[in-house]
Amino acid sequence: MSKKRVLSGVQPTGALHIGNWLGAIRNWVELQNEYDTYVCVVDLHAITVPHNPEKLKSDTLSTAALYLACGMDPKKCSIFVQSHIPAHSELCWLLNCVTPLNWMERMIQFKEKALKQGDNVSLGLLDYPVLMAADILLYDADLVPVGEDQKQHLELARDIAQQRINSRFRKGNNPVLKVPKPLIMKEGAKIMSLLNGTSKMSKSDPNEGSRIGLLDTADTIQKKIKKAKTDQHFGLEFNNPNRPESDNLLGIYSMVTNQSREIVAKECFDIGWGKFKPILTDALIDSLLPIQQKYNTLIEDRSELNKVLKEGTDNANKLSGQTLLRVKQALGFLERINS
Ligand code: AQP
Prior knowledge:
3-stranded parallel sheet, globular, 5 strands, about 5% strand, 13 helices, binds adenosine-5'-tetraphosphate, mainly alpha
């Protein structure tokens, strides 16, 4: 039996942080052993908010290199850049034309991000979930790893595939598009800001001190952890609703040392913040060191990275081209004559 397929990606909207690693990429490293895995750098999504062209280019390259540095193995997965596959934009247009506008206006992430932008909200931001649907549906993905914040977008992709394409345009028994299912990841994967334990760690937070970047130096990590928000209590603990910072930093410590929450809770229940912070700092530096070493090698000599992206693009192009053709035929487009 062939393996089930999984698709995921990160937006190159800034330097990747430990939330992107612990909440997403580290899970993919496990998934690639079991599934036919496609991961892309979703650069077309990154321009749905105002962006800097030079930064987009360097963030795209560094995101792809970090996938490899974090353990994605090109023998087990395909890695590519979304904008290198024109089928993403093309399928997005086709899906736009069958998706009701009022489905889009309900999207919570749009409402939240639009609020931040005032009058500058782009049509692309409203359309973000349809592009995401195109990303997923193009690869006939069986499963999509999703956190809480992306569940609504996956639901939309399922509704578009099922209600707007398959039920209207299928001929005979074969569906035009595969309807993907969510792959709910392990608990505890949401990493919060270092400066506010109730707000998500995010690439686009204007305050650098809110996050630990995967490429931060030991010195920077030390400074950021030193300034991280604490509380008045002695000892670290999980699940106390009045202590979100304790929950978050202890959770990060558990994840980067690969120790269970029970073990770290026992280790840290009777130590104060002053003692805990250096322990966490060392653990972060140790866990990021191998990633940074591999990253530097990949960036110094781009040949391996270029080869991986080329192979990934070839695989992605082939698969997505077949799906796009199927959709165009179902929708009634005249086929192109190839001379
Ligand atoms: N803080 C987080 N904790 C756990 N997982 C996280 N992810 C992001 N932040 C955290 C996961 O990383 C993947 C890629 O995210 P994305 O770049 O596509 O979008 P995002 O979730 O909006 O990430 P950021 O860092 O917050 O970027 P900006 O600031 O540009 O919006 C996803 O699987 C996400 O769950």
